[in-house]
Amino acid sequence: MKDLTVLTAYDLIPIHKFLNSIFMTRMKLVVYITAFLGTVLYAYNYLNPPQTWEVENKKAITAFHKSQFDEAEKHFVQALKLAETFSVKDPRLYFSLGQLAEFYRIQSMFLKAEKVLHHTLVIDDKVFGPKHYNKALNLNNLAVNYRMQGKFEDAKNILEQSINILEDSLGKEHPLARRIFDHYTHLLNVMNSSKEDQKAYK
Prior knowledge:
The chain has helices at residues 9-47, 53-65, 69-83, 91-106, 110-127, 133-148, 152-169, 175-191, 195-199. The protein is an all-alpha fold. 22% of the residues are buried.
């Protein structure tokens, strides 16, 4: 009579098949789960692309063109935060500052625009120096911001600084110097200033 506690090779075949089927089932399950997670991850990355300066800047511009101004501001600000992690000489930082300042000016958010422009002027001093024409151009932008608020004296003083820098760096007859002088003349006309003030910079 066969001892039921003794297992022969013949007896192990069904067990082997059984274990093998379990193993294969688990392998298929792992494959299915991996494929599912891969699909979910791909979909997430597609719908939520990684935060990069390029992505945030593109989202900001797209939202602006759709008149979604709150959304545009959010992405312009985020693009600037990312740009601030770069070198101060990275052109993306300068570009982001200019875009955000212009966005705020267009939206008549002048105090926010002024803050961004002051930040830009600090970078001008660090990267280009205090007598560079880039600083003069950003001083002109700050003057525009003041003029649009009716702060004419502030705008006048800033434009005088801008003109002095341009005359020293590029010369009085340079097109940029003439353009900013034209802005200055327009401002004086708005202020009904005397002709003597205008002659001083002719």
